[in-house]
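In response to reviewer comment 3 from the previous cycle, which asked for concrete evidence that the modeling workflow produces usable outputs, we include below a single protein chain processed end to end. The sequence was submitted unchanged, and the resulting structure tokens are shown without manual editing.
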Amino acid sequence: MEQQQFSTEDYIRMAEQGHPDAKYILATKYRNGEGAEMDKAKAAQLYRDLADQGDSDAQYDLAFMLDNGEGIPQDRVESERYFKLSADQGDSDACLCYGGILFERGEYKEAERYFMTSAMKGDVKAEYNLGLLYIGEYLGEPDKAKAREWFESAADKGFAYAQSMMGSLYLDEKDLEHAEEYFRYAAEQGEPTAQYNLGALALSGQIKMEYQESVEWLTKAAQNGMQPAFELLVKLNSGQDQ
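The workflow returned the following structure tokens.
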């Protein structure tokens, strides 16, 4: 259904006749206030009607609204139920969210399964989350090779946190050239750990960089809440040895 072919009144009429596509489009209009007066309660009700009929997109949208209390009372239990319903139909965003819920609850093996579903569809956040699972001890012994594979995939898609992790992996291997490359990719996107590492590596003489640039990276990291960067800047400003 081409949304631009119809007016909001057309969608209301078709929704009242039970057309699911029209209901979904109308719900989104009410939710965002686009082409209709914003009414999140109406949006949620339309999403719920569709969700209870098995629509995975509506299940995800309703779960998100319930999770955040977006225009309707917050209900984390119901939110989780709808995230799972959507995720079990393979919705990538729902798999990512439900995997996160499971991870926070310590159900790491189940979290891996949902992250994997999302990652296999190319979701960079899910790829990064798999990397975190494998590099830690969540599933038993760390598997650095698997972690690297998923971090690298997400990094190559431009995901800053994965780029920063790749920088750290290369740093552990004393490959400063590649470490600097990945840290710079992430730092230029505003990732504070990478910004700090760039500045700190330069000040310690491990990579070549103008002093002013290294201070600028540390300053950006400190402004982004990176406490070690702030402490290093204080030492520099007070004339202490690094």
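The chain has a mean pLDDT of 95. We consider this sufficient to address the reviewer's concern, and the full set will be provided in the supplementary archive.
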